[in-house]
Amino acid sequence: MIRFSLIAIGLAMTAPAIAGPLDAFWADLQALCGKAHAGELIAAPEGDDSFSGRTLVMHVRECTPDRIRIPFVVGEDRSRTWVLTRVTVDGEPRLELKHDHRHEDGSDDEITMYGGTTTNLGLATQQVFPADQHTRELIEPAHANVWRIEVLPGERFSYHLQRLGTGRVFRVDFDLAATVEAPAPPWGWEVP
């Protein structure tokens, strides 16, 4: 019995640590760094045709251990970047999603850096971001926004927005099975 226990302890000490769902999600995002993928509009709010018929590209352009910046290019419009940051809330690891919006001259849009922070570890394939107080102060109706990002390696990256209690839904899916040419830097970014 003692021998079996020592073997079990030895195996446990050599076994790799299993990452939690947040870490697994982060690792899958990091694996996309430097790659660009074409997107398809799946759902948009009624009457909003600003994304219809336009080329949609996400570019996982900048990755550090704690921050990933993903420009979302719509046609020739390079004003949008999703910023995902590893944060700690009440001692627990979380992810924060912010939307960095810029004008063509690089200056901040009046409505920028809105988003939210996960409230739990989520799933390895998806994380959910309820709107934060800053978002409510910028866009009062957006206090009911919930964003969801889903990553299915080799298949799909989905960006999804739903405004709870309304029919407002937006979703775009990006094909992770193929890459496309990386777009020019987002407005306000210096060319590396």
Overview of the structural elements:
The protein has 192 residues and is of the alpha+beta class. The protein has helices spanning 2-14, 21-30, 133-138, and strands spanning 36-43, 56-59, 62-63, 67-74, 77-89, 92-101, 114-117, 126-130, 145-152, 156-163, 169-175. The radius of gyration is 19 Å and the shape is globular. The termini are far apart.
Which helices and strands occur, and which strands form pairs?
Layout (H helix, E strand, L loop, with lengths): L1 H13 L6 H10 L5 E8 L12 E4 L2 E2 L3 E8 L2 E13 L2 E10 L12 E4 L8 E5 L2 H6 L6 E8 L3 E8 L5 E7 L17
Antiparallel strand pairs: 1-2, 1-11, 2-4, 3-4, 4-5, 5-6, 6-7, 8-9, 9-10, 10-11
- Overall mean pLDDT: 91
* Low-confidence sequence ranges: 3-18
Largest sheet descriptor: 11 strands, antiparallel
Q: Which percent range describes the beta-strand content?
A: 35-45%
Euclidean distance between termini CA atoms: 61 Å
Q: Given the structure, what is the number of helices?
A: 3
Order of H and E elements: HHEEEEEEEEHEEE
Counted beta strands: 11
* C-alpha geometry: globular
Helix content: 10-25%
Described by its quaternary structure, the protein is single chain
Radius of gyration in whole Å, from Cα? 19 Å
What structural class is derived from the secondary structure elements? alpha+beta
